[in-house]
Amino acid sequence: MKAVRFSEFGGPEVLEIVDLPDPHPGPRQVRIAVRAAGVNPSDWKKRRGLMGGKLPQTIGHEAAGVVDELGEGVADVAVGDRVFGLSSEGAAQAELAVLSHYAPIPPALDFPTAAALPSAVETATRALDQLGVRSRSTLLINGASGSVGGAAVQLAVLRGARVIGTASPANHGYLRSLGAEPVTYGEGLSERVRALSPDGVDVALDLAGSGVLPELIELAGAPEQVVTLADFSGAQAHGVAFSSGDAGRAVHALFEIGDLVESGRFSVPFVQAFPLGEVAEAQRVSESAHVRGKLVLVVG
Questions:
Q1: 3-state class (DSSP) for residue 294
Q2: FRET label pair with 15: which of 101, 175, 187, 190, CA 20 to 30 Å apart?
Q3: Which residue range(s) make up the domain with 88?
C-alpha cells in the first residue's frame, strides 16, 4: 500500500509517499480502505522531531473509510461498512489503516467530513471531562476557532455551559454562530474576559499554547481549574494539567457525535481537502497556524 512517511526530521520536503506492507488488524480492531485522513498539528510536530521517536516514521491518527478486514472478536461492524475512528499505530495517512477505536459514519456525512471529526471530538470531550464542565459552568477556551476549539465550544454549550472563546476578530462571527462569546486574544486578555464575566471563569482550556497559562490560572482561580493541550512546558512550570490520550481516551465521543450531527445539534467543521500526494502542502498550511476548520487528505 502507499503511505506517507519520512526518514529524516525537517520541513515538509522530507515527506514521501512510499510503498509499505499492508497492515492487518489485531483483536478488536478493524482495517479500512482509507477514503480520507485527518491532518493535525501533531503531524508537523512529529515531522520536525519535536515528539521524538525512531526513524523512519509514518503519520496519521484519524481516518474514515470502508471496513475491509476484521480483527478477532469484532462483531459490531461488517466488511463493507463505512466507519471513522482513531489509529493507535499513527499510520492513518495511507491507503489502508488499522483503527483501534471506530464508529459508524453518520449517513449525512461524506468521507472527508467524517475524517475531520475523530481527533477533534475525542480531544475536546476528553478535556471537557477533565475540567468537569457541566451545566452553568463558565468555560474560557483559548484558541477556540480551530477544529478542536470548535468542537469544544459546541460540546460545552450542549452541556449547558457558558463559553467565552478567544480568537482573532475575523473569527468572532464564527464563534458566535457556535454559541460562544468571543474575545480577542493577546495583551489585555484578562481585562476583556472580566468585562464579560467580572468574577472570572470556573475553568479554562488552552488550545493555543500562546504563553497565557498564568492569565488563565488567574481567571479560573487555581492551576487545577486549567487544562492545556498545547503547552507542555508551561503546564509543568505552572502546575497545570496537560491533556493527552496516555491517561485514557474519551472514545465514547465517537459513538455520541453521530446522533448530534444527524439531529443538527453539532455543526461539522469546514473541510479543506488535499490529495494524499499533496501532504507536504497540507502540512505547510497546518503549520501556518491560520487554519479555521479542518484539513484532510483524500485517498484514491
A1: strand
A2: 101
A3: 2-117+268-298
